Amino acid sequence: MTVAPRPADGQLDQSPVSLADFADLAREVLPAEVWDFVSGGSGVETTLAANRAALDRVAVLPRVLAGVEQPRTDAVLLGRAQSMPVAVAPMAYQRLLHPDGEPALAAAAGAAGVPYVLSTLSSAPIEEVVAATDGPVWFQLYWLRDRALVADLLDRAHAAGCAALMVTVDVPVLGRRLRDARNGFALPPEVIAANLPGGRDDLAHAGTPGVSAVAVHTGAVFAPVLTWADLAWLRGRTRLPLLVKGILDPRDAVRAADAGVDAVVVSNHGGRQFDGAPATATMLPEVVAAVGDRIEVLVDSGVRSGTDVLRALALGATGVLLGRPLLWALAAGGRAGAQAALDLLAVELRDGLTLTGCADPGQARRLRTLTGG
Ligand SMILES: Cc1cc2nc3c(=O)[nH]c(=O)nc-3n(C[C@H](O)[C@H](O)[C@H](O)COP(=O)(O)O)c2cc1C
């Protein structure tokens, strides 16, 4: 796998004017199988496409004569003020995209004033990523077969100063990602799961035709069964704010709220897990109706612009996780690329608030939406 030469950190060849432009830049520099790993979904990618289609169907009814000149974009998530109601979604193996990997994206998030969610499958150690940014880092936990290892990761996240814990509950097994299987996708030797003991690393690096080595590796280390009792154990083990990511059914959101979590993330993993799951924009209003008065409700999957953030707010979300566009931006320009993408998102969000007559994101949550355009 060869990575094409790319602009030095701090420069971008062209000036992207939308997050989609970063995808075009990334595609030019990334090996085809890395592009596929990041951009693809599971199965025939029905859910991947549904996420976008559902967001596109959400029309937001603007208010006029509101006298708003410069809306504020700042918001409070989990009790902490930030520059906009956005956080960087947890995403594995960021050194696949750029040698600077997680520390670069975390630093960009810190500079932009938004939290960075650090994946269990980070290719840089927790401590190195936290040290690279002035901003808050939330630790994302995948439940591992080895409970002692889970406890060790939690201890390390606490000791490093992570500000919240996010447990992902939609990966009992990795979704069948056909692009990766067709590509016989395996991690290059320099990209490792830096927070896990090295014993199973060879599995992620063994290229086999027709098989995703990443799927084989996660199958070996992830716990295939996760229950509400495990969530209760986790709640009892940390005083940090706890988020559960991967909720779609409002009944699960109610159980999570009953279990004492601080937030749910309505997510279908960007269409990478159960292909056939509904779009998150479809389920978000039901989840907000079920638990929005008790806990925070965040959403991800398919968000590609400030307009999409505004749509999510208008559907009742308190915050949004931004995923793939930031990996594309990281690939295109390292830390500077990711920062440019977050700056662009802030501009788009501010424009959206202005154009819908909102003084701040809180007002956007009171806008009416219509589906069907
Ligand atoms: C390359 C890649 C790696 C990911 N790794 C993780 C992960 O380690 N943990 C996790 O909870 N979610 C992971 N996700 C899912 C994201 O957190 C998020 O739910 C998804 O990307 C949102 O969809 P979007 O990219 O279309 O915005 C990953 C997504 C991508 C694209």
From TrEMBL:
The active site is at H269 (proton acceptor). Its cofactor is FMN. Residues 11-373 form the FMN hydroxy acid dehydrogenase domain. One of its GO terms (molecular function) is oxidoreductase activity, acting on CH-OH group of donors. Keywords: Flavoprotein, FMN, Oxidoreductase. SUPFAM superfamilies: FMN-linked oxidoreductases. PANTHER family: 2-HYDROXYACID OXIDASE 1 (PTHR10578:SF107), S -2-HYDROXY-ACID OXIDASE-RELATED (PTHR10578). CDD domains: alpha_hydroxyacid_oxid_FMN (cd02809). FMN binds at residues 90-92, 119, 140, 168, 245, 267, 300-304, 323-324. This is 4-hydroxymandelate oxidase. It comes from Micromonospora rifamycinica. Belongs to the FMN-dependent alpha-hydroxy acid dehydrogenase family. Glyoxylate binds at Y142, R177, H269, R272. The keyword Flavoprotein applies. The keyword Flavoprotein applies.
